[in-house]
Amino acid sequence: MSSRTTFSALSLILLLPGLAAAQTPQAARRTPVVALVEKVAPAVVNISAESTVREADPFFGRFGLGTERQAQSLGSGFIVDRNGIVVTNAHVIEGASRITVTLLDGREIEADLLGSDRDADIAVLKVKASGLPAVPLGHSSDLMIGETVVAIGNPFGLSNTVTTGVLSAVGRTVPSERGERLFTDFLQTDASINPGNSGGPLVNIQGDVIGINSAIISGATGIGFAIPADRARRVVDDLLRFGELQPLWTGARLVSVDPELARRYGLPASVRRGALVLKVSPDSPAAAAGLREKDVIVSVAGHPVVAREDVMTALYTASAGAALDAEVRRDGQTVRVKLRAVHPPQGLGLQVLERSVGLAVEGARGVLAIRRVAGGSLAEQKGLRPGDVILGANGQQVDSVENLGREVLRGLDRGGLLLAVQRGRWVYNLDFPL
Q: What is the radius of gyration, based on Cα positions, of the chain?
């Protein structure tokens, strides 16, 4: 071997440790968290929602005088389709007159609202762009308590902030934004979720989106919540197809079992939790499944039922018409049934309003007037009478019988209906059980 060859080989040997030292630390730092952030972060967007807020004049407000100002709220979202479909929270864009989506590369694109559902707290937007980085919704049915999760979003307007933690719990009961509805399947994590994170993705260590960050407990630290991906998927599909979440119907009126109700209905000592079947409509999916009045649903889709909300959450997680295995306690025996929820028949909401509340209404030129009040009904007991005008239902303005019927079906899911009724100069808010 020549001296030149020997020197070259020796030089290479001496250089190799330095090269390895220059490369190895960064490779060692490329953890699974780094890899998933590189995969998901480009699809996470910042959402700016502008709205016009009218402030009444403190002295002349009663004459309609006041000022208007532009308000802006910030939130997060993520692209689920390369052609510009963005998912976020409904409360992030509620009341917005202009929505702007900012991508990771700095591009700002105006977005159109395709649909939203305030109860599910999910909205779907569309931006006019294609070939965008996207991360589809994953699955949340096989989650493990303690597994690593990562939240990506824009807390306090700080774009693409990454926080890590573990999945603390599943099946948490969390009220909707207005407190009108309870969800019993939220994911809980200790990954930091702060204002502005709403609408961003919660992902597992493989970079799969397992939830949509949605809520924090005010004043608490280390507790965040996310809508599970399995439930969000059906909502997103409905919003894309119809622009709204399609209501589902079983034909069974359910109430949560508590010790007082158990005593009143003479339920056995072994049944102190569950969903009691108060009524079964004829020719309904519940009737076809074999449910009977005074049955108590104690399990659905393999999960225990503590309250009626557990049943509703399971139904809204599955696709319309899907058969869910349910266990029912009846006369001390356990009966297994297959329960389905389907899209309600046309006009069902108004039928429920007349049958359960005792109101028949008619609409003309955007005004909903009560046409008839059934004798002995809940409406009569509340003092309603023909000629009263219905302004809103469940906190939403209604100006057609179709909108009213839709809100009645929402109330059917929650077990109650809130009506805003006007008589003369006065407006009354009245609550009716369904």
A: 27
